[in-house]
Amino acid sequence: MSFGFKKKILRVNLENQKINKEENTEGFYRKYFGGRGLISYFLLRELEPNIDPLSSKNKLIFACGPVTGASVSGAGRHSVGAKSPLTGGYGESEAGGFWGTELKKAGYDAIIIEGRSEKPVYLWICDDTVEIRNASSLWGKQILQTQEIIQDETKSQSIRIASIGPGGEKLVRFASIIHDLRHVAGRGGMGAVMGSKNLKAVVVKGTGKVKIAKPKKLQTLAMWMVKNVDRLVHTLHTYGTGAAMDVYETTGNLPVNNFREGVFPSVDSISAQTIKKTVSVGMETCFACAVRCKKIVKVSDGRWKVDPVYGGPEYETLAAFGSNCGIDDLKVICKANELCQRYSLDTISTGVTISFAMECFENGLLTLAQTDGINLNFGNKKAMLKVIELIGQRKGIGDILAEGSKRASKILGSKTERFSVQVKGQEVPMHDPRLRRGQGLGYAVSPTGADHMHNIYDTMYSHNIPRDIEGLGILEPVPIDDLGPKKIRLFHYVSTWNSLDNSLCLCTFTPWSVRQKVAIVNYVTGWKTTAFELMKVSERATNLARLFNIREGFDRKDDVLPTRLLEPKVNGALSTSSIKAKDLEKAKDIYYKMIGWNKKGIPTSEKLMELDIA
Amino acid sequence: MSFGFKKKILRVNLENQKINKEENTEGFYRKYFGGRGLISYFLLRELEPNIDPLSSKNKLIFACGPVTGASVSGAGRHSVGAKSPLTGGYGESEAGGFWGTELKKAGYDAIIIEGRSEKPVYLWICDDTVEIRNASSLWGKQILQTQEIIQDETKSQSIRIASIGPGGEKLVRFASIIHDLRHVAGRGGMGAVMGSKNLKAVVVKGTGKVKIAKPKKLQTLAMWMVKNVDRLVHTLHTYGTGAAMDVYETTGNLPVNNFREGVFPSVDSISAQTIKKTVSVGMETCFACAVRCKKIVKVSDGRWKVDPVYGGPEYETLAAFGSNCGIDDLKVICKANELCQRYSLDTISTGVTISFAMECFENGLLTLAQTDGINLNFGNKKAMLKVIELIGQRKGIGDILAEGSKRASKILGSKTERFSVQVKGQEVPMHDPRLRRGQGLGYAVSPTGADHMHNIYDTMYSHNIPRDIEGLGILEPVPIDDLGPKKIRLFHYVSTWNSLDNSLCLCTFTPWSVRQKVAIVNYVTGWKTTAFELMKVSERATNLARLFNIREGFDRKDDVLPTRLLEPKVNGALSTSSIKAKDLEKAKDIYYKMIGWNKKGIPTSEKLMELDIA
Predict the structure, then answer these.
(1) Residue B461, pLDDT score
(2) At a CB cut-off of 8 Å and minimum separation 6, what does A576 contact?
(3) Chain B interface disruption, residue of A26, A594, A598, most B CBs within 10 A
(4) By a Cβ cutoff of 8 Å, what residues of chain A touch chain B?
(5) Between the N and C ends of chain A, which has fewer C-beta atoms within 10 Å?
(6) How far apart are CA B257 and CA B431, in angstroms?
(7) CB pairs under 8 A between A and B
(8) Of B9, B132, B20, nearest in space to B64 by CA
(9) Is residue B148 packed enough to be buried (19+ CB in 10 Å), middle (13-18) or exposed (0-12)?
(10) What local confidence, expressed as pLDDT, does residue A314 receive?
């Protein structure tokens, strides 16, 4: 029996063109599950230390989880991993949509892509048939054109395509991988790794089924969510992400002008509510999901037309290209989002790298000569859109910024370093740790660099236990700006539980309770797992990722926040208080010891024994 | 709402006769649950350090758990705790039966008894009515007489009585507390603490109900066990404990002659199967339990008559007075068991203290003069029964042995120390750690001294995950005599899960799966707890008990096994190999660090923060 899992991993070597299908035991899958669990396992086991992430020695892994492709809300996800060209450490990014489900239907839990093809190729997978095909005609094409040509060549509309645009080809260090035009594995430069392998696309067609151990029970649970989704997540269901931006501005959570400021009076003009009223042409969904939180936007007139095939901006994108670049024109932000999809660029890193450049420019550390005459001031819409394209093409100033803000600051001079808002080289997302201090700890210790998917319960607003974390033992609220033992405990438990989603692979936005997630795994696999076992699966995966980073030379010294986030904002709610470096160090002391890492942030051998890691 | 819990704790001070009823929040109960959770919380918080356990400063706590009194198999249990006069550390013992359920029905989760009465008293609890009553007429009486007098005096048969016999009154350091003639809180000398307070009995009558949040779901689960109990635990259900003694003898698990030997050819004559065929008059049950594992034996003729009102011997008793004292006469063992109930003595400590004395005697370290002419050789039935009575009366050699084997060896001279088979002063149960090495670690680190309820999965015999621990993440079998990292991990997870039973309070012998136990808690309380939260509840309780011991001066140096258990047996399966002291030290190094204790075995402040212990 192999419910949930296919027990088959596809291994493709682009160098010698060897294609293997590898099987593992049920016990293997129960230990590592999928997503981060599989990726961290294989990267740690198979990569040589200290390789160049853009060399042929890197491996690119697409991994589904046990629930990928199960007909239940949130289960349309998979992860993509490799050594990150942005951070030099563990790289992993998740995407929703339909691609992962298709891979499972084709009969595989994961694909491990090795080596580098001499010429551009794409991978064609149709059930048992796996071919490395010529992609010369695709090279240089944007995402939509790439899809159209492949559909034409394969004479099939019912295929799922993971592909890169020029950003990936040109090795932009934060290039993303786009699935079916708008489902993005955005962070950490997985698109650049794909580009470095001369791999334009991974095309999947699957005719099989994902076998479910208890289909009726799963269906009952799925229907429960359909009936309750509006009650549970009305705002997300109605507007998608980005409907709380006014609150974020008031409280100080919203980055303004490269995280420097806290006041953005026209915040309402770039919110998800305004999208709904203006540029929205509806909401779409990932596979089998009742939440339907994916915005689709269309701008058909004016200076910036936006093609709805590329979806619409999430909150992260709205803030990164909006308030964070001093821009309050929604259509410009939608265009920026569309350009990132066309070129396959991560919107967070792109936005924050541009805001970095804007602050450098305003401080005279980036000159008109360097920008080829572009006035890169905060708020310059045209300049921002132009620079996105330059990054995607690695032209002019874009060639420097394509390196990410950390490397760019090294090129532009040490005075620019304090404008580079990143952790381990990955740009900081749109939740300000000066307000959310648990989130700050999360940014600092995340194996992928700054990552916002760790700690959504940085605070709790009432004495009721939130339904989606009931059962984790968090019984009391902790203030949002606290970073003491109770917050660290909350972060440890909640971030471990949330990170599990990256191994399942299940969407964090679907409001399943702890018990419901456990039930989903059991209904899919036929196991009798528990929240305890799942917490350990998550811990195991994150410790493997940590070990990968340790081997690459990372340790405690790298678990830090950038200078900018340790200073108060120049105005707004957080202009008088901030997270402090010494408080973060204290928090690390406690957190490391609490989770079984030594003072340098290295997992103790006893912790590894406890997680059954040899 | 207060499903499961009564949210009321009764506090009775025998010194000033004050009676208080204290309320706590739902959050308090969710954090500490009951049993060990409550006992360790109150003992650590309220006892002065370094008090004499038999002084008025000790407190005796009877504590139910959330599931006590719920109509489901295994839920008829409660715990009794105090500073132990046997170990000088955290003392706690559990009992089945009906008493705990009655206390819940009377409206209380726990009773905290403080101070010392000047004269013998008993406590009368009938719902809201709580009285400290004169027990002068009861003092000196055995258990049955005590019960009859109280029933007469209160004109009630439908009461539940926790009482002590002469053993408790005489402060035998391993005196037990007997509930309703045959449900025993045996270990750690809780009966002596009760005796030191001049408290003869705690009599309870409750007319209320235990409110269940989801009674229909609970009933469905209860009925499932009724239907499946024979399939799941056929042997236990049919014979009670003690049906595997032949295997235990073959493998070396069975103690013979004070743990010295491994061969006991007539093992079959003292097994539960033989009881079934000979002295059994049926099987009885605890409250609401389908397992019905309680033997009732009767011997109405011959030299040793055994009164069936006192129940029958468990495996621990069969071995402690049987093979461990070189005795293969079942009726004698049944009589020994009955005597222990009459006098309120722990059968394990009594048996092992007598086997200690027998070995001393055979080695000339205990003389006929000291025994008043009793030939205390291994196998001397009459002598054994006589000495039990002497212990219960603290007469002659019994007065020395009533101190337990550790203190007795100090009295009898240092040469006798190697015959004292105890950890922290508490005698070792009937599972030999030379075979079961995880069990050995368990004996060493248990807060109560040697205790056998920690680690029933010292090995797993197949590659299937046993149903009752599926969901704890143990995926592979570990050899029984292994004490490496995999065994330590298994011990950590399984012992934490098993110890939870002491906080729930649920019987470890009921074959509920991990998921079913979680469901029971949720159906009873209306919470949505998980195995993760429950593991943390268990860890919290055990860490509180550990902190209590640390305050009393215990640390790593006390987490050891007695010399006898570090030597091979003189014959039988374990005559060539044994657990070694240095292997145990290595295992402690790993175990301590794995569970968040420092090298001295003290919980780190970060561990306490993680468990939300202030």
Answers:
(1) 47
(2) A568
(3) A594
(4) 27, 30-31, 467, 470-473, 475-476, 485-486, 488-489, 492, 513-515, 518, 527-537, 590, 593-594, 596, 604, 606-607, 609-610, 612
(5) C
(6) 14
(7) 111
(8) B9
(9) exposed
(10) 97
Q: A416 is written with which tokens?
A: 């620019």
- The string of DSSP codes covering B214-264 is SHHHHHHHHHHHHHHHHHHSHHHHHH-S-S-HHHHHHHT-S-BTTTTB---
Contacts with B514 from chain A: Cβ below 8 Å: 528, 530, 532
Q: How far apart are CA B394 and CA B73, in angstroms?
A: 39
For residue range A140-173, list pLDDT tens digits in order.
999 999 999 999 999 998 999 999 999 999 999 9
And the tokens for B103?
């206390």
Ramachandran quadrant class, A60 (left: phi over 0; alpha: psi -120 to 50; beta: rest) = beta
For residue A489, what is the nearest residue in chain B, using CA coordinates? B610
Contact A175, A142 (CB under 8 A): no
Phi and psi at B183, nearest 5°, equal -110, 115
Pick from B30, B488, B514: CB nearest A530? B514
Low-confidence ranges of chain A (pLDDT < 70): 1, 454-464
A chain contacts of residue B478, beta-carbon cutoff 8 Å: none
**B150/B160 Cα distance (integer angstroms):** 10
Q: Looking at the partner chain, which of A471, A527, A533 has a beta carbon nearest the beta carbon of B529?
A: A471
Q: Which residues of B touch A485 (CB under 8 A)?
A: 609
Q: Which residues of chain B have pLDDT under 50?
A: 461-462
- Coil, strand or helix at A50: coil
Nearest-CB residue to A590 (from B470, B596, B609): B609
Q: Which residues make beta-bridge pairs with B112? A: B11, B61
Rounded to whole angstroms, how far apart are CA atoms A93 and A187? 5
Q: Which two tokens stand for residue A511?
A: 């409001």
Task: Compute the distance between CA of residue B576 and CA of residue A370 in angstroms, rounded to an integer.
Answer: 81
- The pair phi, psi for residue B395, each rounded to 5°, is -115, 145
Altogether, the residues listed in chain B come to a count of: 614
Do residues A453 and A508 lie in contact, with contact meaning Cβ atoms separated by under 8 Å? yes
Supply the ipTM of this predicted assembly: 0.96
Would you state the pLDDT for residue A461? 47
Taking a C-beta distance cutoff of 8 angstroms, is the pair B81, B502 a contact? Answer: no
Q: Could you report the per-residue pLDDT of A408-459, keeping only the tens digit for each?
A: 999 999 999 999 999 999 999 999 999 999 999 999 999 999 998 765 566 5
B464-515: per-residue pLDDT in tens?
678 889 999 999 888 888 999 999 999 999 999 999 999 999 999 999 999 9
CA distance B613 to B609: 6
Residue of B nearest to A606 (CA): B594
pLDDT value of position A578? 85
Kindly report the backbone phi and psi dihedral angles of residue B15, in degrees, each rounded to the nearest multiple of 5, phi listed first: -80, -55
Chain centre distance of CA A397: 26
Distance from CA of B471 to the nearest CA of A (A): 4
Measure in Å the smallest separation between the Cα of B611 and chain A Cα atoms: 8
Angle formed by the axes of helices A347-362 and A381-393, nearest 10°: 120
Sheet holding B60-63, edge to edge: B19-22, B9-13, B110-114, B60-63, B78-83, B90-95
Structure confidence at residue A457 (pLDDT): 63
CA distance B476 to chain A (A): 9
Burial class (CB in 10 A: 0-12, 13-18, 19+), A442: buried
Q: Can you tell me the distance from the alpha carbon of A490 to that of A84, in angstroms, rounded to the nearest whole number? A: 29
Give the list of residues 6+ apart from residue B432 with CB closer than 8 angstroms, or none: B252, B253, B254, B255, B259, B565, B574
Residue-wise DSSP of A401-433: HTTHHHHHHHHH-GGGGGG--EETTEEP-SS-T
B27/A527 touch (CB, cutoff 8 Å), yes or no: no
